[in-house]
Amino acid sequence: MEEIKKTFSKVVAIIENAKKNAYRKVNEELINMYWCVGQFISEEAKAASYGDSFIRSSRYLILSTSWRTHPRLEYMVFLQGI
Predict the structure, then answer these.
(1) By CB neighbour count within 10 A (0-12 exposed, 13-18 middle, 19+ buried), where does 55 fall?
(2) Quick one: which of 40, 43, 33 has its CA closest to 72?
(3) Is 65 helix (H, G, I), strand (E, B) or coil?
(4) 17 CA to centre of own chain
């Protein structure tokens, strides 16, 4: 019985390690996504004419999509004050 527990603990360790790696990869992709979205919005805002409400319109579009349920994106919008 002790040998089975030892073997099973190795299986559990493999599974836990894979879960940690998956979390890291997901976070890496989320950071990349936020960076790309921020870069895109920044470039579009620079190209926008003064007074055309690009930032304000972008905020409403972002908040009206399914992304609205993602707290980090809402917080980013909040921090920008838009």
Answers:
(1) middle
(2) 33
(3) coil
(4) 22
76 CB neighbour count, 10 Å cutoff = 16
3-state secondary structure of 64: helix
Q: Name the token pair of 11.
A: 């299986």
- The candidate with the shortest Cα–Cα distance to 45, out of 73, 82, 10, 8, is 82
Separation of first and last alpha carbons in the chain: 62
| Residues 34-79: tens digit of each pLDDT | 888 888 877 877 777 776 777 777 767 776 665 555 666 666 656 6
User: Quick check: 74 and 68 in contact, CB under 8 A?
Assistant: yes
Q: Which tokens sit at 7?
A: 């073997």
Q: Give the predicted TM-score (pTM) of the model.
A: 0.56
Looking up tokens 């030892």 gives 6
